[in-house]
Write a structure and sequence with these properties.
Elements (H helix, E strand, L loop, with lengths): L1 H5 L3 H4 L8 H29 L1 H8 L5 H15 L2 H13 L5 H14 L2 H7 L6 H32 L1 H14 L9 H19 L4 H43 L4 H15 L2 H13 L5 H14 L2 H7 L5 H23 L1 H4 L1 H15 L1 H22 L2
Length: 386
C-alpha cells in the first residue's frame, strides 16, 4: 500500500483525491510522444515555409563550430532540456537549414548545457558544508566529463569529421544516402495534424514568413509542453522503482551496471536531468560515493540521446537521422575515451572534488561558476564568432 501511495505526484493530490490509473497514465504518455512528434514536424514545416533567404539570415551565426557549440549550450540552458534543444536541431537539419557539420557541434553544446540543472540542484545544500561539498562534486563531475569530452572530440570532428562520419555511415546503412528521402512511417502518422496547423494559420490570414514563424513557434510550444508532461508522467509511473533501483545497484558499485541503470532510467523518464538530479541528494547525504554515482551520469548521457533519434523519425531526411546518431556516437565515444581508459577515468572526479573544495570555502564561487560557464562564456563565444 505504501508503494502505491508514494507513486502519487503532486498533481494527483492537489485539491483532489483522484489518482490517474497507471494504464491510463501510460496511454497518456503514448499520446504525448505522438504530440511531441507533431511538434517536431510542425517546426520543420514552419522553417520550410519561411524560405531560404530568411533561413540563411537566421542561422548564419552558427557556421563556426565553436559558435555552434555555444549556441547549443545557451539553447539548452534556456529551455533546461537537452531533449528539447536537440529535437529542434534535428528539425532544423531535416528542413535543410542546418547541415550535419554545423549541427554536430550544436548537439555537443546541448550535451554540455544540460548539466546546469544538477549543478543548480546542488546549490540547495549550500548551508551544510560537508553535504554541499559532496553534492557540488557529484554535480560538477558531470560538467567536467562533458567538457573534457568536447575538448577531446570536437577537434577530431572539425579536422577529420569523426563523429559525423561514423553517424553518416550508420545512417546510410539504415535508411540510405544523404540527399534522398526515406519513407518514415512516423512522418506519415503526423502528416494530417501538421497540415491542420498549417491550414489554421492560413485561414487566419497569415502567409509567407509570418505563417512560417507562427508554425515554428507552435512547434516549439508543442515540443516543450509534450516533453514536460512526458517527463512528469513517466516520473510518477516509475518514481518509487527508480529510487529503489539506484540504492540497490549503486550501493554495490560496478561501473558498467551503473551506466546501464543511468541509461535505462533516462530513457524511461526522457530526462537526463532527472536521473542526475536524483543522485545529488543521495551523494550529499553520504548514501552514495562520488565514484559510484559518476558512471550513472555517463549512462544518462547516452540515454538522453533517444529523444533526438525519436525526433529524427518524424523526418524523412537521412541527415536528420545522422544528427540523432551523432549525438549517441559522441556520448559513447566519450565513455570509451574518458572512462574505459584507466588513466583518464578519475580525471573528472578529481577536478570535481577540487572545485567542490574551493566552492565550500567561497560559496559565491559556486554561483559565479554556474553563471560564467553556462551563460557568460557561451554568450561571448556566440558574439565573438558571428
Amino acid at each position: 500500500m505504501s508503494a502505491k501511495h508514494s507513486s502519487k505526484g503532486p498533481a494527483d493530490v492537489a485539491g483532489s483525491n483522484f489518482v490517474l490509473p497507471k494504464p491510463a497514465r501510460s496511454a497518456l504518455v503514448v499520446g504525448l510522444i505522438y504530440l511531441f512528434l507533431v511538434g517536431v514536424s510542425s517546426l520543420e514545416a514552419g522553417i520550410k515555409i519561411m524560405g531560404a533567404d530568411t533561413q540563411e539570415k537566421l542561422f548564419t551565426a552558427v557556421t563556426n563550430p565553436i559558435a555552434g557549440l555555444c549556441v547549443g549550450i545557451l539553447g539548452t540552458v534556456l529551455v533546461q532540456s537537452s531533449s528539447a534543444s536537440t529535437s529542434v536541431i534535428v528539425a532544423l537539419v531535416a528542413s535543410g537549414v542546418l547541415g550535419v557539420d554545423e549541427a554536430v557541434p550544436m548537439v555537443m553544446g546541448a550535451n554540455l548545457g544540460t548539466t546546469v540543472t544538477n549543478t543548480l540542484v546542488s546549490l540547495g545544500h549550500v548551508r551544510q558544508s560537508n553535504e554541499f561539498r559532496r553534492a557540488f562534486a557529484a554535480a560538477t563531475v558531470h560538467d567536467f566529463f562533458n567538457a573534457l569530452a568536447v575538448a577531446v572530440i570536437l577537434p577530431l570532428e572539425i579536422v577529420f569529421g569523426l563523429i559525423s562520419g561514423i553517424a553518416q555511415w550508420a545512417s546510410e546503412g539504415l535508411v540510405g544516402s544523404s540527399g534522398t528521402e526515406w519513407k518514415s512511417p512516423v512522418k506519415a502518422w503526423v502528416k494530417h495534424p501538421v497540415g491542420w496547423l498549417t491550414d489554421l494559420w492560413s485561414a487566419a490570414g497569415f502567409a509567407g514568413n509570418v505563417q512560417g514563424t507562427l508554425m515554428v513557434l507552435t512547434g516549439l510550444v508543442i515540443i516543450l509542453v509534450a516533453l514536460a508532461f512526458i517527463t512528469k508522467n513517466m516520473r510518477q509511473l516509475i518514481a518509487d522503482r527508480v529510487e529503489r533501483s539506484v540504492n540497490a545497484v549503486l550501493g554495490k558499485g560496478g561501473g558498467a551496471v551503473a551506466m546501464l541503470l543511468g541509461l535505462a532510467i533516462t530513457v524511461a523518464v526522457q530526462s537526463s536531468s532527472i536521473t542526475t538530479s536524483i543522485l545529488i541528494p543521495l551523494t550529499a547525504a553520504g548514501v552514495l560515493s562520488l565514484r559510484n554515482a559518476y558512471p550513472v551520469t555517463l549512462g544518462a548521457n547516452v540515454g538522453t540521446t533517444i529523444t533526438a533519434l525519436l525526433a529524427a523519425l518524424a523526418a524523412s531526411n537521412p541527415d536528420a537521422l545522422t544528427v540523432g546518431l551523432a549525438h549517441t556516437t559522441f556520448n559513447v565515444l566519450g565513455i570509451l575515451l574518458l572512462y574505459v581508459l584507466p588513466f583518464a577515468r578519475n580525471v573528472p572526479v578529481r577536478l570535481a572534488e577540487r572545485l567542490a573544495d574551493v566552492a565550500v570555502k567561497r560559496r559565491t564561487m559556486a554561483v559565479a561558476y554556474v553563471v560564467v560557464v553556462f551563460v557568460v562564456a557561451p554568450l561571448l563565444g556566440v558574439v565573438a564568432l558571428r
